[in-house]
Specification:
Oligomer: single chain
Number of helices: 25
Radius of gyration: 26 Å
Length: about 575
């Protein structure tokens, strides 16, 4: 049996899914699509049934890729739990009426029930049940209120197959139902509602956004550095380093196998940043350097998502984002790109047109450094002073804006208006935040660790075959002539296609000036995405647009690198 959670975006489906799911959820692409769908199982009487969190949708007449996938999944469902936002009944019941027309057994979860009291809304849910003809149960997914009754009433789900109506008829029916079951009483706004209203106004919305952004980066840095200083560095220095030293001695301190596993000894000792062995640098970079910042970033991102702030940022920045040819929701994949480009490119699916997805994916690949790269940039360039870190980020922001304007003028297509439901501010449920964080960390480790270790192996082999020497000779006119970097910098720029964080680490050993290091880091950020991002972009954009994006990356990096060489 397959139970589907279906509803508009931002109605608490994910929180309800976490409540109902008996085992850890898995996320995989729905067959025939490229959209990841969370699935799990739940106990229903003596049965173990599958439960699926269907992508949020406003209608069964798809207007986006996500809605098309949702409509396709619904056709395969055995039972629907329609999750409805009780504080926005009129908007949500339109989808409810369409679901009733499918003839699939259905029950309604009237979620966010607690917020109706805060907003002066009084809903006669028993009368709503009579009018719809299917069971209706008030729930508060974040606290668990009503969940037990919802599960107990699932066997009462009814299949009606109501007559098909036109859109005008459906909206008229919705209006009639809401008029009969809902009354509104006067009340004063709470301070959270005042804050919510102000968050989407240019003033004080922009100062609030800058404050949230600044505080987020301070917290991310505090957590990341704390994990490195008190957990990961002590582990590698005190526990892992002695084991690697013994392994190095056992392998004779040199040779091909030694270089692959342990790497080169730096001044007679294992150096986790520079040795470039699979068991030294290959483990230290993803676990000891990148993971702490990725953990902190995804934690803060999850909190901002579940507090209800990210949709407000999307509305606030909609005008600005339209100037580069996309709407405000593009801020979601853009912020995700600050953590990892792979989920960020996947998140461009929330955008409705191919033009928007191409522009945002290209801008992320060029102007948004991932958490792994940022950790290395701050750690490497920051040694020369904060002004060089500021220059690096300032150039990336400038490139992001200018390139966005150019793409807006040159890429054909349309940019739809932003239609988004803004949830109320609320305390984020810790179990949902923790579950989301766990899933993202697991995805990161599964993607990053194999690629880093593969990259280390490739580097070792290529060095043994003197391939980097050949690449350095071919790329010297660009790397040295245009970028002002030594010819040895060609190797890190090529390796950056595998792992940018690792490539920045390789720049460390080239005795570069501060200006050259800034140019090197910027070129690594802009010239190519990492291999995993490259593959995902090809899948999302198609080969033709991937090649176009690649050409834009190369042209942009050559122009910017050449200009910086004249200035720095």
């Amino acid at each position: 049996m397959k139970i589907l959670l279906v509803g508009n975006p931002n109605v608490g489906k994910q929180a309800l899914f976490s409540r109902l799911a008996e085992v850890k959820a898995t996320t995989s692409d729905y067959p025939g699509t490229a959209v990841a769908i969370p699935t799990s199982h739940m106990k229903l009487g003596d049965q173990k049934v599958e439960i699926i969190d269907v992508p949020g949708s406003y209608t069964l007449d798809p207007t986006s890729k996500e809605e098309a996938v949702a409509a396709r999944i619904i056709k395969d469902g055995d039972l629907i739990i329609n999750v409805v936002n009780a504080t926005n009944l009129e908007r949500n019941l339109f989808l409810t009426l369409q679901l009733l027309e499918t003839g699939i057994p259905m029950i309604v979860a009237l979620n966010m029930w607690d917020d109706t009291k805060h907003r002066g809304l009084h809903i006669d849910y028993q009368k709503l049940e009579d009018l719809l003809g299917v069971p209706v149960t008030p729930t508060v997914a974040v606290t668990g209120e009503g969940i037990k009754e919802l599960v107990s009433r699932i066997p009462q789900a009814k299949a009606l197959r109501t007559p098909t109506q036109t859109k005008d008829q459906q909206w008229a029916t919705v209006g009639g139902i809401v008029g009969q079951v809902q009354t509104v009483t006067h009340r004063h706004h709470t301070w959270l509602e005042h804050l919510g209203d102000n968050s989407i106004k240019p003033f004080p919305g922009i100062p609030i956004a800058l404050t949230v952004l600044l505080c987020s980066f301070i917290i991310i840095r505090f957590i990341g550095e704390g994990l490195i200083g008190f957990v990961f560095d002590p582990f590698f220095d005190n526990l892992w380093a002695p084991l690697m030293t013994r392994l190095s001695d056992a392998l004779g301190s040199e040779g091909f196998l030694h270089d692959v596993l342990v790497g080169r000894l730096i001044e007679g000792e294992v150096n986790f940043k520079d040795s470039l062995g699979m068991l030294t640098t290959g483990l230290y970079i993803p676990f000891g350097v990148v993971l702490p910042y990725v953990f902190a970033f995804y934690l803060i991102l999850g909190v901002l998502e579940d507090v209800g702030y990210l949709p407000r940022v999307a509305v606030l920045l909609d005008n600005l984002m339209h100037r580069i040819g996309v709407h405000g929701y593009a801020i979601i994949p853009t912020l995700l790109g600050l953590g990892c480009h792979v989920p960020a490119i996947l998140a461009t699916r929330v955008l409705e047109s191919e033009r928007e997805r191409f522009i945002v994916a290209t801008l992320i690949s060029i102007g948004i450094p991932c958490a792994a790269l940022q950790a290395m940039i701050i750690g490497t360039v920051g040694d020369y002073g904060l002004q060089y870190v500021a220059i690096t980020y300032g150039v990336l922001l400038l490139v992001w804006i200018v390139l966005g304007l150019i793409l807006k003028l040159t890429i054909k297509g349309f940019t739809p208006e932003l239609l988004i439901e803004i949830p109320p501010y609320r305390v984020p449920p810790l179990n949902v935040v923790a579950s989301k964080l766990q899933a993202r960390i697991v995805d990161f480790l599964q993607e990053a660790v194999p690629l880093v270790m593969a990259g280390i192996f490739v580097i070792t082999v290529l060095e043994a075959l003197h391939v980097f020497q050949y690449i350095a000779n071919v790329a010297e006119p660009v790397v040295s002539g245009l970028f002002g970097l030594p010819r040895d910098a060609s190797a890190p720029l090529i390796i950056g296609a595998l792992r940018k964080d690792m490539a920045v680490g390789m720049l460390n050993g080239l005795d570069l000036t501060a200006g050259q290091l800034v140019i090197g880091c910027l070129m690594l950020s802009m010239i190519f995405p990492c291999l995993a991002t490259f593959v995902v972009m090809g899948r999302e954009l198609g080969v033709r647009r991937l090649l176009l994006a690649t050409g834009i990356m190369l042209a942009t990096s050559i122009v910017v690198g050449s200009l910086l060489n004249l200035v720095l």
